[in-house]
Specification:
- The complex is a heterodimer of chains A (about 1050) and B (about 80).
- Chain A has about 1050 residues and is an alpha/beta fold.
- In chain A, about 45% of the residues lie in helices and about 15% in strands.
- With about 80 residues, chain B is mainly β.
- Chain B has one domain.
- Chain B has no helices and seven strands.
- Classes of the chains: A alpha/beta (about 1050), B mainly beta (about 80).
- At the A-B interface, helix 6, helix 7 and helix 19 of A face strand 4 and strand 5 of B.
């Protein structure tokens, strides 16, 4: 006779179930159950995991879902695949706002079993529900929940069942696997219901009996043999496996009488001939060999359709002029390259196909394609149309409890005040995997070592790694050949996007294809720059076909003037560029890969630079590594190298080597790492490597922890680096205009405008005569290209308002402020004032205060005239306008910051004379200083960036900016401590020793003074960030 | 109903109480009416109680066995 839990909620019943499907499966097997039915609330999120876990422990996994009708809980259990589809359909409908009673009554649930849980239901509602569902195969579930009168309630349900002629079945209400998990369940209920742990609530558990129990235990509690027989009947009759043996990709467009394999082959050969026609014979031969190999693998893994679909999407994007670029490990594939999915030649850049795909790979490979972020929506809409709305949806992500989220929820449940909860959250890093106990001191710094601290830590421990809610993947689109409702319910995200109930791993396990449609703002920036060049300057650029050896471009990169260039604009990257001095495209690939947590934490950056600059010899721990690491001078920089070392040096098969690579990168499971270490060393030794060398190589490879790039991804990114650097070098006006439009980088608008000016490109103020909705280019009186800020760059000016102004000026030019206000009656007064303060009306009236006065009076009279007042007059006479003080320089700049994000001249300009007298030098002066002898200098600027990366051992990096440039200043821990208060100010004077390399300069700070204390006298000065703190004493910012 | 909360001695046969000793008196268990469990706050002493509602020779008693206090008489019903 079969026994199992028929009513089991996992932690995918968010903030209710307290155990993972895996944990439930293991416990059920230990208790001797033959099957387990997962019935999460309106969801089948745990289906894949349960199925996998049950296969491992040797019991059967069955799927169902819990729904609530008039406060009566019913479980709908799938008898087979069709039943599962019916459940998915039911959940989709209910989540979409369907009326539950009507649906359940009328829906085809022919392949499902319905269990009505009666023991804790209101008897009247129960009777109604039973009669409503009687046409389905329906049972009344009985349980013993360990509360008073549990058996009596069960008997009452049995009696009701007899009277209605409905069979009874044992259906214990399980919310967690073992008794100890009751605490997590209780805490989750408190969080869900918004009560503290000290408040009573009817849904809170009173005991720990909602766990899995053995058959014997349940039989002792519920003496109803017939109900056990019915349980056996249900379990025996249900059978369903959600995990297929094969991938089910969406159907590609294939002409009749041909196969996907043939079409792919034909396309690939055409593409190869196009891509390699100008290459030498040897490269062509290698390309052909590689292509044949890849096509064979794709055929064997039945992925031809998948590649054709990706090709179709990318081709459609290109046809529509939407810039896109394949990234990630897909760039290791020559098929992806010749199909134009990626843009980096795997032969030329020695990219390893096996990092992307090999015969041992289970599931579909990841192909990530970046699209112009502005137009990504278009391509998603096209995909929905092409593959069918029913066959496309976004992948979900499970938002798991991490430390801060757990602290917030537990602290609230413990009843801490909101302010304390906020402080507790801020006291720990946002993302960390340390044991919970390690945060004791940090949390104690907020609430002290009180007894509640132990409870807080205990509660956090209970929640960590449980899912809290469902999220939406940033770009993973599921494409299916059959309607998705057969495999998963679809639910709508807050912004109306259809989302499946599974994450990317589950999607892969289900044989579905996920295609990452990502939005990359830099691609939008490059596209717009090319368009601006064409439209304004009449220059047509084929940005994808640039020669990759432009000396001016590399000169710019080497000089570190890379602010605004993709991936290499951070201060850390600029410093690295000064040391690395890239000379060719391959160097850019290395540059992109070097500045990653993997190489940085693995201590690989300095050895690489030393070897490159000839300060250290190129050495290999073992001669076998030379062919694998020669192009990175013996240093492990890329994921492919880890894979190749595991495969060729340690003799692991490719699939195992790929697992090793993945394990090393993620560095999560120490036990698995230990096992892999043995495999690695034994494999190397069996290949004839001595044990000591094998261990040393393992140590080196295992240091490649954290996030590191694969070479193909770095190469794909390096191409965008090169394109953006090329544009900035040769067409700075168009590039910086596009950059300001899309803002893909890390710097504020003021810094970007200053950078434009340093490149000889003026940034013109927004102007109602010339500005558009987007950034545009104009020639100044010297025929130099300048950037014109758009009307939408002005605070409060929406796209609609800007459109209205542009349409109105197209009719005729604005003759006066009065004319401007009168012709734009629908634009609110505050928006008109913002336009005036930004200086966009200065051609009509120089004095901003007069402009504001006129706007106010005209708008007022407009309102009065609409109400029909006798005294309303339309025109303002000059004599009416009062004499108003002109804006002072500081006020002018402050209003610039407030209204359009950047001042027309750098605010530091105002204080240059005073600072020169004080021997505070400009940043440009610092950049001119030699570094062969220690020079102490004082300089000052507005703080652009503050960074204290965990790898910097307590150092603080502050980047300041004046009208001549920017400078990174390094604050050692002791100075940081001594000047902690001063360092939070928005503008600083910093004194220290000049250090540097090549064109890079920095200051090792010894002394910090708040700049306002030196220049003084500007209290109340308006801030560009809003408020009045820009150059003020006491403008405190957080270092977080 | 009277709340008591005093320790008692309970004689059991196959885990089922048949005699209760309280304040020097003995009470034969005639019939068990119901049983249930409770668990105390997980952040506190984590006490688990197994309650039994039973009819004795001198009335209805609610007793419980606690993993911390042993057998206790919880309440008596007149």
């Amino acid at each position: 006779m079969q026994f199992g839990s028929l009513h089991t909620r996992s932690h995918f019943s968010f903030l209710d179930g307290a155990s993972s499907p895996e944990c439930l499966a293991i416990t059920a097997a230990r208790l001797g159950h033959s099957a387990i039915v997962l019935t999460d609330v309106l969801g089948v999120y745990g289906a894949v995991r349960l199925q996998r876990a049950c296969k491992t422990v040797g019991i059967r996994a069955l799927m169902g879902a819990d729904i609530n009708i008039n406060e009566v809980v019913i479980s709908v259990v799938a008898r087979n695949a069709e039943g599962y589809r019916q459940i998915c359909n039911l959940i989709t409908t209910l989540r979409d706002g369907g009326v539950i009673e009507e649906y359940v009554v009328g829906s085809p649930l022919s392949e499902c079993v319905i269990i009505i849980h009666g023991c804790n239901a209101d008897p009247d509602s129960l009777g109604v529900i039973c009669s409503m569902l009687q046409k389905h195969e329906c049972y009344l579930g009985i349980e013993h929940d360990g509360r008073p009168w549990a058996l009596r309630r069960a008997r009452r349900v049995v009696d009701l069942a007899e009277s209605l002629n409905i069979p009874c079945v044992i259906a214990q209400d399980v919310r967690y696997a073992t008794r100890d998990e009751y605490a997590a369940h209780d805490l989750m209920v408190c969080i869900r219901e918004g009560v503290t742990i000290h408040d009573p609530h009817p849904l809170r558990p009173v005991n720990d009996r909602q766990c899995l129990r053995s058959e014997q235990e349940v039989r002792e509690l519920l003496p109803f043999p017939e109900a056990f027989k019915n349980l056996d009947l249900i379990l025996s009759s249900c059978s369903f496996d959600i995990l297929p043996d094969r991938v089910t990709p969406p159907s590609a467009s294939i002409p009749e009488h041909t196969s996907a394999r043939e079409v792919l082959r034909e396309l690939a050969i055409t593409g190869l001939e196009r891509r390699y026609h100008s290459c030498d014979a040897s490269t062509q031969e290698r390309a052909w060999t590689q292509l044949e190999h890849e096509l064979r693998v794709l055929d064997e893994l039945e992925l031809s359709d998948f590649f054709l679909v990706v090709h179709e999407v990318v081709s459609e994007a290109r046809r529509r002029g939407i810039r896109c670029s394949g990234r990630g490990s897909a760039a290791n594939s020559i098929v992806a390259y010749v199909l134009n999915i990626t843009g980096v030649c795997p032969i030329r850049h020695h990219l390893l196909f096996e990092r992307f795909l090999h015969r041992g790979r289970k599931g579909t490979p990841d192909i990530d394609v970046d699209f112009d972020s502005d137009r990504r929506g278009e391509i998603i809409a096209w995909m929905e149309e092409r593959f069918g709305l029913a066959q496309t949806a976004m992948t979900a992500t499970m938002i798991m409890y991490r430390i801060r989220m757990a602290i917030r929820d537990v602290a609230k449940a413990l009843g801490f005040p909101t302010e304390t909860v906020r402080s507790l959250c801020k006291s720990v890093p946002s993302w960390t995997n340390q044991p919970v106990e390690s945060y004791r001191e940090a949390l104690a710094s907020v609430i002290g070592h009180i007894p509640m601290l132990d409870i807080l830590l205990c509660g956090i421990e209970l929640l960590i790694d449980h899912p809290r809610h469902l999220g939406q993947h940033s770009g993973g689109m599921v494409l299916s050949s059959k309607p998705l409702e057969m495999l998963t319910p679809i639910q709508r995200s807050a912004n109306g996007v259809a989302v499946v109930q599974f994450d990317k791993d589950d999607i892969e396990a289900m044989g579905l294809v996920k295609f990452d449609v990502l939005g990359l703002r830099m691609l939008a920036c490059v596209s717009e720059a090319v368009e601006l060049l064409d439209v304004h300057q009449g220059i047509v650029v084929d940005i994808d076909d640039l020669p990759l050896d432009d000396s001016d471009t590399f000169q710019l990169i080497r000089s570190g003037k890379t602010l605004g260039i993709f991936q290499i604009e951070s201060q850390g990257q600029m410093h690295l560029l000064a040391k690395h001095q890239p000379e060719c495209f391959d160097d850019l690939v290395t540059e992109v890969a070097l500045f990653r947590p993997g190489p940085l934490q693995g201590g690989m950056v300095h050895p690489y630079i030393s070897r490159r600059t000839g300060k250290a010899p190129v050495e290999y721990v073992h001669p076998d590594l030379e062919p694998l690491l020669s192009d990175t001078l013996g240093i492990v920089l890329f994921q492919e190298q880890v894979l190749e070392i595991a495969h060729r040096f340690a003799g692991m098969p490719l699939d195992e080597a790929d697992d090793f690579r993945s394990l090393v990168s993620k560095n999560r499971d120490q036990a698995l790492m230990a096992a892999m270490k043995d495999t690695f060393i034994n494999g190397a030794v069996s290949r004839g490597v001595d044990h000591a060398s094998a261990e040393r190589v393992y140590d080196i490879v295992s240091h490649f922890v954290g996030y590191g790039f694969c070479r193909s991804h770095a190469a794909a990114f390096a191409k965008i680096v090169y394109q953006s650097a090329w544009l900035k070098t040769h067409h700075p006006a168009a590039y910086m205009a596009a950059f300001m439009q899309h803002r893909p980088g890390m710097y504020n608008l003021m810094t970007l405008e200053e950078e434009s000016r340093r490149f000889g490109v003026d940034v013109l103020l927004p102007d109602v005569r010339h500005s558009h909705i987007r950034y545009t280019l104009e020639k100044d009186q010297h025929q130099r290209w300048c950037i014109r800020k758009p009307l939408t760059s002005i605070r409060d000016v929406s796209d609609d308002a800007a459109r209205e102004i542009i349409m109105e000026r197209a009719r005729s030019a604005f003759a006066s402020i009065e004319d401007f206000v009168l012709r734009l009656p629908s634009i609110p007064r505050n928006v008109l004032e913002s336009i005036a303060l930004a200086g966009a009306l200065s051609h009509l009236e120089q004095d901003v205060r007069r402009t504001i006065w006129i706007i106010g009076v005209v708008r007022q009279r407009q309102q009065v005239s609409t109400t029909g007042s006798l005294f309303a007059t339309d025109h303002i006479h000059e004599t009416e306008i009062p004499t108003l003080p002109e804006l002072r320089a500081q006020e002018r700049l402050a209003y610039d910051y407030i209204t359009h994000g950047a001042a027309r001249v750098h605010p530091m300009t105002l204080f240059r004379r005073m600072m020169t007298t004080m021997e505070i030098r400009s940043i440009e002066t610092v950049h001119r200083l030699p570094i062969d002898k220690p020079i102490i200098i004082a300089t000052a600027g507005i703080v652009m960036l503050r960074q204290a990366p965990p790898t910097a051992r307590g150092m603080l990096f502050i980047t300041i900016e004046d009208e001549t440039g920017f400078l990174q200043c390094v604050v050692p821990p002791n100075v940081r401590q001594a000047y902690a208060a001063e360092l939070r100010s928005a503008a600083l004077m910093l004194k220290g020793t000049v250090t540097g390399i090549s064109s890079w300069r920095s200051i090792m700070v010894r002394e910090v003074v708040v700049l306002n204390n030196i220049i003084g006298g500007y209290h109340g000065h308006l801030s560009y960030a809003g408020g009045r703190d820009t150059l003020e004493v006491g403008s405190v910012v957080s270092f977080a | 109903m009277k709340s008591i909360h005093e320790p008692i001695d309970v004689a059991q046969r196959q885990l089922t109480p048949y005699m209760i000793c309280w304040r020097g008196g003995t009470y034969a268990v005639e019939r068990i009416i119901d049983s249930w469990t409770s668990r105390g706050p997980w952040w506190g002493n984590d006490e688990t109680r197994g309650y039994i509602l039973l009819i004795t020779s001198s009335g209805v008693m609610e007793i419980y066995h606690s993993n911390i206090r042993g057998w206790m008489l919880s309440r008596m019903y007149d």
